[in-house]
């Protein structure tokens, strides 16, 4: 391969940035479609190192003449999420963040002058109820677009319905790997915000090996349902590639929403593992950790927890230090002094909801922020191109490969499968007097390139294809 000049490199980088659709990222809206629009963008990229990279580019967009006008009526955005039942503690905070962002967007004039009206429905985490709400939002409420704070079961049930009805649907969570691997492998109307389960587990396994490269014996305490078993299967598949002589010495599978973990903790301790993985979430993880303290779990073993960074705040200052936790978004990363968007988002959330989730947003909040701002950016970008209010198909064409600045850094939709990609964050627990609960310190990231199979390739085939460096 020939050498690439600095000019060609910068040109290629700029091309990648423009695909991201930064037009309209600032507050306010475009009043009329310009025939030619020149935008200068100063973009600071968080690289995960002490230094950041700033690139200033100039974009010229020539808008096509169009007779289409911007409708005067509000944009109806359907919202389906879990507000009752066991999942409410996870999803209700996302709705609060969505409402906060919509309020700000409306105060700045809305999207191209159109205010956003949220029509919210509670699914209770039930797939049949989610589908019922979706159909009624489309046929009875006449919504323009829909965003869903969904469980994996809901997302998998809903995707075919969204494709059939032709409604642009932004699934914020619903992280089942099979959504785009099997159920909707060639989506047109469905997009997903959060990193999916395989990415969570692959990145977590990489973090385990980097943190404790000498670990050989592994055990698990995992929730006895699909998510728990899937996460452990992926983690161990990756670890076997990274640590060929690794050994699984114990497995304990308490039921979902268990109250007593004593027998499970005793079982794994008796096996004397190097690392105990906790494939638990929410209140289950908090309860298990509290009981594990009494059994000396954290003194006798290294402990890790996939997605555990989302829930450790619930332990307050009781959280043991040194647990390796991962999460899809972490409120202190990117660092506030390097990424003002994250600081501003956290400070406003804390002012509004000081008693919610320890007063700081979780990954559902970041995905809710991303969903509404991705929609806003795509509409505004399409508007500058077509010269009028864009159709759903025109918005989709812009949303594919769209890059969105979020509190958690830049994220982008992959055109081939509509999966959004961003960093996975990992760190070790450390009790903070400032926040009144354990934070992750130090923090590092696993990039999308390290944990994401290529489009159309299933995670297991991809991991099995890895070759160790000699």
Ordered list of secondary-structure elements with their pairings:
Layout: H1 6-19, E1 36-45, E2 53-62, E3 75-81, H2 88-107, E4 116-122, H3 127-139, E5 145-148, H4 152-165, E6 169-171, H5 178-183, E7 190-192, H6 197-211, E8 217-222, H7 226-242, E9 247-252, H8 262-270, E10 275-279, H9 282-294, H10 297-300, E11 302-305, E12 324-327, H11 340-352, H12 363-386, H13 392-399, E13 403-406, E14 409-413, E15 420-421, E16 424-432, E17 437-446, H14 448-451, H15 459-464
Parallel strand pairs: 3-4, 3-5, 5-6, 6-7, 8-9, 8-10, 10-11, 11-12
Antiparallel strand pairs: 1-2, 12-16, 13-14, 14-15, 16-17
Query: Which structural class is indicated by helix and strand composition?
Result: alpha/beta
The coarse silhouette is globular
**Residue fraction in strands:** 15-25%
Number of DSSP helices?
A: 15
Brief overview:
Helix content is 38%, strand content 21%.
Describe this structure in words.
There is one protein chain. Residues 1-63 have low confidence and may be disordered. The protein is 38% helix and 21% strand. The radius of gyration is 23 Å and the shape is globular. It has 3 domains: 23-62, no CATH class; 75-195 and 339-421, Response regulator (Rossmann fold, 3-Layer(aba) Sandwich), CATH 3.40.50.2300; 198-327 and 424-464, 3-Layer(aba) Sandwich (Rossmann fold). Helix 3 runs parallel beside helix 4 (152-165) and helix 12 crosses helix 13 (392-399). The protein has a 7-stranded mixed β-sheet. A 5-stranded parallel β-sheet has the order 4-3-5-6-7, with helices on both faces. The protein has a 3-stranded antiparallel β-sheet with strand order 13-14-15, covered by helices on one side. It is an alpha/beta fold.
């Amino acid at each position: 391969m020939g050498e690439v000049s600095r000019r060609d490199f910068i040109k290629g980088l700029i091309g990648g940035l423009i695909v991201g659709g930064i037009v309209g990222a600032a507050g306010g809206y475009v009043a009329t479609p310009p025939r030619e629009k020149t935008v200068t963008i100063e973009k600071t990229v968080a690289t995960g190192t002490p230094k950041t990279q700033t690139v200033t580019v100039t974009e010229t967009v020539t808008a096509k003449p169009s007779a289409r006008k911007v409708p005067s009526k509000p944009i109806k955005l359907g919202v389906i999420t879990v507000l009752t039942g066991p999942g409410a503690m996870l999803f209700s905070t996302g709705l609060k963040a969505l409402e906060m962002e919509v309020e700000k967007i409306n105060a700045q004039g809305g999207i191209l002058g159109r205010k956003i009206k949220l029509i919210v429905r509670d699914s209770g985490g039930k797939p049949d109820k989610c589908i019922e709400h979706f159909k009624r939002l489309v046929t009875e409420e006449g919504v323009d677009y829909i965003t869903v704070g969904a469980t994996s079961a809901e997302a998998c049930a809903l995707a075919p319905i969204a494709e059939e009805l032709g409604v642009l649907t932004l699934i914020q969570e619903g992280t089942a790997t099979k959504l785009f691997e099997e159920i909707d492998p060639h989506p047109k109307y469905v997009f997903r915000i959060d990193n999916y389960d395989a990415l969570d587990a692959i990145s977590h396994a990489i973090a385990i090996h980097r943190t404790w490269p000498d670990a050989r014996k592994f055990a698990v305490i995992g929730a006895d349902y699909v998510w728990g078993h899937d996460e452990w299967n992926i983690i161990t598949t990756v670890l076997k590639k990274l640590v060929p002589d690794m050994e699984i010495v114990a497995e304990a599978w308490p039921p979902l929403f268990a109250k007593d973990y004593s027998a499970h903790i005793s079982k794994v301790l008796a096996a004397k593992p190097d690392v105990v993985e906790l494939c638990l979430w929410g209140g289950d993880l908090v309860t298990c950790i509290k009981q594990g303290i009494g059994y000396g779990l954290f003194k006798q073993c290294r402990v890790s927890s996939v997605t555990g960074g989302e829930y450790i705040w619930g332990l307050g200052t009781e959280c043991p230090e040194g647990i390796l936790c991962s999460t899809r978004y972490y409120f202190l990363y990117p660092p506030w002094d390097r990424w003002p968007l994250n600081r501003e988002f956290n400070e406003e959330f804390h002012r509004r909801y000081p008693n919610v989730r320890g007063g700081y947003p979780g990954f559902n909040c970041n995905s809710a922020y991303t969903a509404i701002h991705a929609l806003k950016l795509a509409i505004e970008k399409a508007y500058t191109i077509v010269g009028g209010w864009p159709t759903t198909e025109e918005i989709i064409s812009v949303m594919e490969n769209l890059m969105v600045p979020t509190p958690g850094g830049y994220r982008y939709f992959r055109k081939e499968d509509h999966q959004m990609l961003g960093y996975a964050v990992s760190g070790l627990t450390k009790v903070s007097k400032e926040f009144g609960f354990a934070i992750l310190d130090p923090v590092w990231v696993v990039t999308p390139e390290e944990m994401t199979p290529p489009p159309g390739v299933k995670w297991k085939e991809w991991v099995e294809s890895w070759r160790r460096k000699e």
